[in-house]
Each structure stands twice: as C-alpha cells, then as structure tokens.
Amino acid sequence: MDAATGSASRLSASGTPALAPKGRGRRASVEWWTGAAGIAAAAVFTIGWIIAGLLEPGYDWARQDISDLTAATAENPWVLRAAETVSGALLLLFALGLYGAVGDRWSGRVGAALLAFFAAIQVAVGAYLHLDCSLADPACRSAEHTTRHGLHEALSGVSFLALLIALFSLARRFHRDLSWRPLGKVSIGAAVATVAFLVLYMALQWESGGGIAQRLAITTIFGWIAVMGCRLASRPAAAESQP
To answer: Terminal CA-to-CA distance of the chain, rounded, Å?
Structure first.
C-alpha cells in the first residue's frame, strides 16, 4: 500500500472524508448569499423609510403611515418606492434560500412560502400599487380612488396576515431542529410583539402614536428577518467547521 492509499484509508476509517461531499460548497454559497440578501432587505427598507421621511416637508412621524411616503402627493415618492421594490426582491431571494434550508418539513415550507408571498406583494406595492394621496388626510380617505390605491390597502393587510402566520409556522419548524432552535423563541417573541404593536396601531391609526406603533411593528418584523438572515448565512460555515 503506497502512502496516498494509506492516507485515504486512514481518513475513511476515521469517518472524515478527504473532500467535502459533492455539492456541499455550492449549497454553502447559496445559503450565505441568500442569508445576506435577507439582511440587506431589512437594511434597505429601513433606511428607505427613514430617508423618505426626512425629505418629506411637514411629515408627521407620530401620526402618518409609512405608506404615505409613496403616495402620489408626496414630494419624493420615488425614494421609498425604490427602497421597497429592492427590499422586496432581496427578501424574495432570502425566502427561497430559507425554503431550501428548512423546507424539509411542512412548517418550514409554509413559513418560507408565506414570507415569499409577503416579499412579492412588497415588490408590487413598491413598483406600482401606490396610494393616490396621504391616508392621514380625511379628505383622502373619503375620496374616490384608483384601483391600484384600493389594491394597495387590501394587499397590505393580507400580506401582514400572511407574515404573522409565517412567524408562527417558522417558530414551529425552528423548535423541532436543534441547530435552529434558538430562533424558535426569537420568532415567537417577534410574533407576539408584532401583534401587540399592530393592535395598538389599529387603535391609534391616523392619530398621534399610530405612526410610531406601525414603525415598531415593521421594525420588529425586519429585525426578525435580519436575525434569520444572519443565521442562514453563518450556518454553512458552522456546519463545515465541525469534525
């Protein structure tokens, strides 16, 4: 037996392959990039609504919705529209990567699919389904609106409902997997906090405090997405470093 054959035999006997399994490196790369896309999605959207709000004259952060910054009556609607479209596209990539990582069980498949649904609506809202005017204005709420304005309001509600279901579904999936289990508690906490903020938002909508409650709900959601993105991006490296 020559030295090379002996070395291969020793590696085989120890249970450690000489080379990583075929395709493992590609999977690691996909998970890293899609995890990074989730982190970027959270950052782009958050920075977008902050900048858009700062640029909007007379914008009332405590009372007005974030969506008002994309309305046709806004001074710079393109800022948040662009951020929302890009963020949604990045979030869709993240959802696909998450599906590949946790889609081995129905709870993971449902959660990732609903997250992708939320991302698709975010792209549609950012690219086309804009408000006609600021809903904080009573005259706007009582006026006749275009179809895309109506779809914006309807789909926004549906997408948030889908997202809440995704939170609980993924929490179940994470809890059943030791490598993901810490995120189970994070997901439950994010879901409960988001529900609480949305209830407060609905109670104070278009009044002082309503805008703050909405931002707290959205920040909680995108913070959760960023945490999941970090976990997905770091998982392949952690897995490959184990003996």
So the answer is: 26
How far apart (Å, rounded) are the C-alpha atoms in residues 4 and 10? 10
- The Cα–Cα gap between 237 and 220 comes to 27
Under 8 Å CB-to-CB from 210, ≥6 apart: which residues? Answer: 62, 63, 65, 201, 204
φ and ψ of 16, to 5 deg: -110, 115
Give Cα separations from 157 to 52, 122, 127 (angstroms).
22, 12, 18
Model-level pTM? 0.85
* Nearest one of 91, 65, 93 to 80, comparing CA atoms: 65
**What is the gyration radius of the CA atoms in the chain, in angstroms?**
22
Q: What is the largest CA-CA distance in the chain?
A: 88
Residue whose pair of structure tokens reads 């931002």 in the numeric block: 215
pLDDT in tens, 175-201: 988 889 889 999 999 999 999 999 999
